[in-house]
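call fold(seq) -> tokens
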Amino acid sequence: MKILENVDLSAYSTMRLGGKARYLSEASSDQELLRLVEWAKSKKQPFIVIGQGSNIVWRDEGFEGLVIVNKILGRKVLGEDSSGATIRLGAGENWDEVVAWTIEHDWGGLELLSKIPGTVGAAPIQNIGAYGQELSLVLVEAEALDTKTMAFGAVVNDACNFGYRTSRFKTTDKGRYAITAVTLKLNKDQPKPPFYESLEEYFKDNGITSYTRQVVRDAVAAIRSAKLPDPSAVNNNGSFFINPVVGKELADKIASRYPDIVSWPTDDGQVKLSAGWLIEQAGFKDIHDPATGMATWKGSALVMVNERASKTADLLAFKKKIVDKVNAMFGVNLQQEPELLP
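ret:
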């Protein structure tokens, strides 16, 4: 169990910002994770468990405690029949590599979640989703260390309190559970239309009329690469803002002034607005801010990019400019998707 001291946290966020961690270590197994949490508690040190840092922004103050990087690997087929397969995945596995692996085995349910950066363990926390697909639709259970009781156990789907880009792991029980593995139930049904609008347009533009899981994955990859920068090459957290859900009255009010607004009705009678559209209308697409060193991406106003910012304070100042302008124009308060830690 190797524990490093005074580690620069900018290396553990794809935004490449943040202060230092007092301590940092990696956990490659459930027992290593348990020992590290026990060590932190024995030293009366706060602790936090992270993955690749693709959905994390560290504060400039850093973290006065132990950062545990989840490196728990493993892929196991628990069962397979003519209808699908049940698989168990270590929380430290690379998410997109897992998606590719499932498609190689002709299992469906994850193809629309292709090219989402991060680890398997982060997926249930955010209830990752794209193009109409969400992790909650295929997750059976999440295995985790309950750091309150110091016992390992499983949290079944219904107990995860999943919502739009959220779960109990992000809200009521934030920081309590360290996810070690997930079990997913996948299918063998071939993808079929109708698809999400941008996918339909891609298929039409490219003359694609036959849909396999690999075809859908390739389409998603092409669309995402055109809109979103690669975090390994460009400092960013992907989509920085969540699509806001508002009441129908406010949505109608906005639509009366902006008839071309991009929105979708929700199952509970509310309306989900396109955060990217709101930000673009506010004049923040492909903007490069000399005062903060931050920018928005040319392919998507949703993406904030660190071009030459040196502090998280710079990012927060630029974010505030966007949030304030959108709120002034539309009466909508944007919420960021990446977690600001600690």
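The domain at 75-187 is CATH 3.30.465.10 (Uridine Diphospho-n-acetylenolpyruvylglucosamine Reductase; domain 3).
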